[in-house]
Design goal:
heterodimer, A: about 110 residues, mainly beta, six-stranded mixed beta sheet, B: about 120 residues, seven-stranded mixed beta sheet, globular
Protein backbone atom coordinates (compact mmCIF):
# COMPACT_ATOMS: atom_id res chain seq x y z
CA UNK A 1 0.00 0.00 0.00
CA UNK A 2 1.11 3.50 -0.72
CA UNK A 3 2.11 5.76 2.13
CA UNK A 4 2.64 9.50 2.22
CA UNK A 5 4.82 11.08 4.89
CA UNK A 6 4.91 14.73 5.85
CA UNK A 7 7.64 15.04 8.44
CA UNK A 8 6.91 18.63 9.45
CA UNK A 9 3.78 18.89 11.63
CA UNK A 10 4.18 22.67 11.78
CA UNK A 11 6.11 25.30 9.88
CA UNK A 12 6.23 29.06 10.10
CA UNK A 13 7.38 31.72 7.67
CA UNK A 14 7.63 35.48 7.63
CA UNK A 15 5.38 37.31 5.25
CA UNK A 16 7.09 37.78 1.84
CA UNK A 17 9.62 35.06 2.57
CA UNK A 18 9.89 31.58 1.02
CA UNK A 19 9.04 28.31 2.71
CA UNK A 20 9.36 24.69 1.62
CA UNK A 21 7.09 21.91 2.85
CA UNK A 22 8.39 18.35 2.63
CA UNK A 23 6.63 15.23 1.44
CA UNK A 24 7.91 11.75 0.73
CA UNK A 25 5.94 8.78 -0.49
CA UNK A 26 6.37 5.10 -0.97
CA UNK A 27 5.13 3.23 -4.02
CA UNK A 28 6.19 0.57 -6.46
CA UNK A 29 4.12 2.09 -9.26
CA UNK A 30 5.64 4.07 -12.09
CA UNK A 31 2.53 5.96 -13.19
CA UNK A 32 0.84 8.10 -10.59
CA UNK A 33 -0.17 11.62 -9.63
CA UNK A 34 0.88 13.78 -6.72
CA UNK A 35 -1.03 16.68 -5.26
CA UNK A 36 -0.73 19.42 -2.68
CA UNK A 37 -4.00 20.51 -1.11
CA UNK A 38 -4.55 23.51 1.14
CA UNK A 39 -7.12 23.45 3.93
CA UNK A 40 -7.68 26.91 5.44
CA UNK A 41 -9.67 27.43 8.67
CA UNK A 42 -12.88 27.21 6.63
CA UNK A 43 -11.87 23.55 6.07
CA UNK A 44 -12.60 23.73 2.34
CA UNK A 45 -10.01 21.61 0.55
CA UNK A 46 -8.33 23.57 -2.23
CA UNK A 47 -6.06 22.08 -4.86
CA UNK A 48 -2.77 23.96 -4.89
CA UNK A 49 -0.75 22.05 -7.45
CA UNK A 50 -0.64 18.73 -9.30
CA UNK A 51 2.28 16.72 -10.71
CA UNK A 52 2.08 13.81 -13.10
CA UNK A 53 4.83 11.31 -12.39
CA UNK A 54 5.68 10.82 -16.06
CA UNK A 55 6.50 14.50 -16.43
CA UNK A 56 10.07 15.43 -15.57
CA UNK A 57 9.32 19.14 -15.44
CA UNK A 58 8.33 20.42 -12.04
CA UNK A 59 4.84 21.90 -11.85
CA UNK A 60 4.39 25.58 -11.01
CA UNK A 61 1.32 27.65 -10.23
CA UNK A 62 2.14 31.30 -9.68
CA UNK A 63 3.91 31.50 -6.28
CA UNK A 64 3.68 27.74 -5.75
CA UNK A 65 6.15 25.28 -7.21
CA UNK A 66 7.20 21.74 -6.50
CA UNK A 67 10.49 19.90 -6.45
CA UNK A 68 9.61 16.44 -7.73
CA UNK A 69 12.36 13.88 -7.30
CA UNK A 70 10.93 10.62 -8.64
CA UNK A 71 13.89 8.40 -7.79
CA UNK A 72 13.98 9.74 -4.25
CA UNK A 73 10.17 9.64 -4.02
CA UNK A 74 10.14 13.20 -2.80
CA UNK A 75 7.60 15.90 -3.61
CA UNK A 76 8.22 19.17 -1.79
CA UNK A 77 6.16 22.35 -2.11
CA UNK A 78 7.80 25.76 -2.27
CA UNK A 79 5.76 28.84 -1.51
CA UNK A 80 7.40 32.07 -2.59
CA UNK A 81 6.52 35.56 -1.39
CA UNK A 82 4.37 34.09 1.38
CA UNK A 83 1.13 35.91 2.13
CA UNK A 84 -1.06 35.93 5.21
CA UNK A 85 -3.70 34.08 3.22
CA UNK A 86 -1.33 31.16 2.74
CA UNK A 87 -1.75 30.20 6.39
CA UNK A 88 -3.46 26.82 6.39
CA UNK A 89 -3.00 23.08 6.72
CA UNK A 90 -1.22 21.66 3.69
CA UNK A 91 -1.75 18.05 2.71
CA UNK A 92 0.37 16.08 0.29
CA UNK A 93 -1.58 13.37 -1.54
CA UNK A 94 -0.85 10.42 -3.84
CA UNK A 95 -3.10 8.94 -6.49
CA UNK A 96 -2.13 5.65 -8.10
CA UNK A 97 -3.51 2.35 -9.19
CA UNK A 98 -5.79 2.03 -6.18
CA UNK A 99 -7.86 4.85 -7.70
CA UNK A 100 -8.11 6.78 -4.45
CA UNK A 101 -6.22 9.61 -2.82
CA UNK A 102 -3.80 8.76 -0.03
CA UNK A 103 -3.10 11.76 2.19
CA UNK A 104 -0.21 12.64 4.42
CA UNK A 105 -0.87 13.82 7.95
CA UNK A 106 -0.50 17.45 7.00
CA UNK A 107 1.69 20.43 7.81
CA UNK A 108 0.27 23.46 9.57
CA UNK A 109 1.72 26.60 8.04
CA UNK A 110 1.74 29.84 9.99
CA UNK A 111 2.56 33.09 8.24
CA UNK A 112 3.90 35.81 10.51
CA UNK A 113 3.33 39.44 9.57
CA UNK B 1 -16.61 25.29 -12.77
CA UNK B 2 -16.27 21.99 -10.86
CA UNK B 3 -18.25 22.95 -7.80
CA UNK B 4 -19.34 20.44 -5.19
CA UNK B 5 -21.86 21.32 -2.52
CA UNK B 6 -22.76 19.60 0.72
CA UNK B 7 -25.90 19.91 2.77
CA UNK B 8 -26.24 20.54 5.59
CA UNK B 9 -23.06 22.38 6.51
CA UNK B 10 -23.59 21.47 10.13
CA UNK B 11 -26.07 19.31 11.97
CA UNK B 12 -26.76 18.40 15.57
CA UNK B 13 -28.70 15.23 16.27
CA UNK B 14 -29.60 13.16 19.28
CA UNK B 15 -27.98 9.83 20.00
CA UNK B 16 -29.84 6.98 18.34
CA UNK B 17 -31.25 8.99 15.46
CA UNK B 18 -30.14 8.94 11.82
CA UNK B 19 -28.85 11.82 9.79
CA UNK B 20 -28.41 12.19 6.04
CA UNK B 21 -25.74 14.29 4.36
CA UNK B 22 -26.04 15.20 0.69
CA UNK B 23 -23.19 15.77 -1.73
CA UNK B 24 -23.95 17.32 -5.11
CA UNK B 25 -21.81 18.09 -8.12
CA UNK B 26 -23.32 21.32 -9.43
CA UNK B 27 -21.78 21.75 -12.86
CA UNK B 28 -20.41 18.39 -13.89
CA UNK B 29 -21.33 14.75 -13.84
CA UNK B 30 -19.57 12.86 -11.09
CA UNK B 31 -18.92 9.28 -12.06
CA UNK B 32 -17.23 8.65 -8.74
CA UNK B 33 -17.75 10.22 -5.34
CA UNK B 34 -15.69 9.77 -2.22
CA UNK B 35 -16.60 10.23 1.43
CA UNK B 36 -14.00 11.22 3.99
CA UNK B 37 -14.02 11.72 7.72
CA UNK B 38 -11.74 14.20 9.42
CA UNK B 39 -11.11 14.46 13.14
CA UNK B 40 -9.80 17.74 14.60
CA UNK B 41 -6.23 18.48 13.61
CA UNK B 42 -5.96 15.25 11.67
CA UNK B 43 -5.83 14.25 8.05
CA UNK B 44 -8.68 13.05 5.87
CA UNK B 45 -9.59 9.41 6.25
CA UNK B 46 -11.31 7.80 3.28
CA UNK B 47 -14.49 6.03 4.30
CA UNK B 48 -15.87 4.81 1.01
CA UNK B 49 -15.91 5.20 -2.74
CA UNK B 50 -19.15 5.20 -4.67
CA UNK B 51 -19.81 4.92 -8.37
CA UNK B 52 -23.14 5.96 -9.83
CA UNK B 53 -25.56 3.07 -9.87
CA UNK B 54 -23.27 0.72 -7.98
CA UNK B 55 -22.84 -0.29 -4.38
CA UNK B 56 -20.25 1.70 -2.47
CA UNK B 57 -16.85 0.23 -1.70
CA UNK B 58 -16.01 0.73 1.95
CA UNK B 59 -12.55 1.02 3.44
CA UNK B 60 -11.42 -1.51 5.96
CA UNK B 61 -12.81 -0.80 9.40
CA UNK B 62 -15.74 1.32 8.21
CA UNK B 63 -19.10 -0.11 9.20
CA UNK B 64 -21.20 -0.27 6.05
CA UNK B 65 -24.40 -0.77 8.03
CA UNK B 66 -23.77 2.38 10.03
CA UNK B 67 -22.61 4.60 7.19
CA UNK B 68 -25.02 4.04 4.31
CA UNK B 69 -23.92 5.52 1.02
CA UNK B 70 -26.14 5.93 -2.00
CA UNK B 71 -25.00 7.30 -5.37
CA UNK B 72 -28.29 7.32 -7.21
CA UNK B 73 -27.41 9.82 -9.92
CA UNK B 74 -24.40 11.39 -11.58
CA UNK B 75 -24.82 14.53 -9.49
CA UNK B 76 -25.90 13.27 -6.08
CA UNK B 77 -24.47 11.01 -3.41
CA UNK B 78 -25.78 10.70 0.12
CA UNK B 79 -24.22 9.50 3.35
CA UNK B 80 -26.60 8.39 6.08
CA UNK B 81 -25.24 7.91 9.56
CA UNK B 82 -27.62 5.45 11.18
CA UNK B 83 -28.22 5.18 14.92
CA UNK B 84 -25.71 7.93 15.53
CA UNK B 85 -23.63 7.96 18.68
CA UNK B 86 -21.41 10.69 20.14
CA UNK B 87 -18.32 8.96 18.75
CA UNK B 88 -19.72 9.55 15.24
CA UNK B 89 -19.31 13.28 15.80
CA UNK B 90 -16.84 14.45 13.21
CA UNK B 91 -16.33 16.52 10.05
CA UNK B 92 -17.47 14.68 6.93
CA UNK B 93 -16.19 15.71 3.53
CA UNK B 94 -17.25 14.47 0.12
CA UNK B 95 -15.39 14.80 -3.13
CA UNK B 96 -16.33 14.08 -6.70
CA UNK B 97 -14.45 13.03 -9.78
CA UNK B 98 -15.61 13.55 -13.33
CA UNK B 99 -13.68 10.50 -14.40
CA UNK B 100 -11.43 12.37 -16.77
CA UNK B 101 -8.43 10.12 -16.60
CA UNK B 102 -5.84 12.70 -17.50
CA UNK B 103 -6.42 14.84 -14.43
CA UNK B 104 -7.17 12.41 -11.61
CA UNK B 105 -8.51 15.51 -9.87
CA UNK B 106 -11.11 15.39 -7.15
CA UNK B 107 -13.31 18.35 -6.32
CA UNK B 108 -14.12 18.70 -2.66
CA UNK B 109 -17.28 19.82 -0.96
CA UNK B 110 -17.13 22.29 1.93
CA UNK B 111 -17.76 19.61 4.53
CA UNK B 112 -20.46 18.84 7.09
CA UNK B 113 -19.90 19.10 10.81
CA UNK B 114 -21.89 16.46 12.66
CA UNK B 115 -22.41 16.69 16.40
CA UNK B 116 -24.23 13.86 18.15
CA UNK B 117 -25.51 14.68 21.64
Amino acid sequence: AQTVTQSQPEMSVQEAETVTLSCTYDTSESDYYLFWYKQPPSRQMILVIRQEAYKQQNATENRFSVNFQKAAKSFSLKISDSQLGDAAMYFCAFWGGSEKLVFGKGTKLTVNP
Amino acid sequence: GAVVSQHPSWVICKSGTSVKIECRSLDFQATTMFWYRQFPKQSLMLMATSNEGSKATYEQGVEKDKFLINHASLTLSTLTVTSAHPEDSSFYICSASSGRAYTREQYFGPGTRLTVT
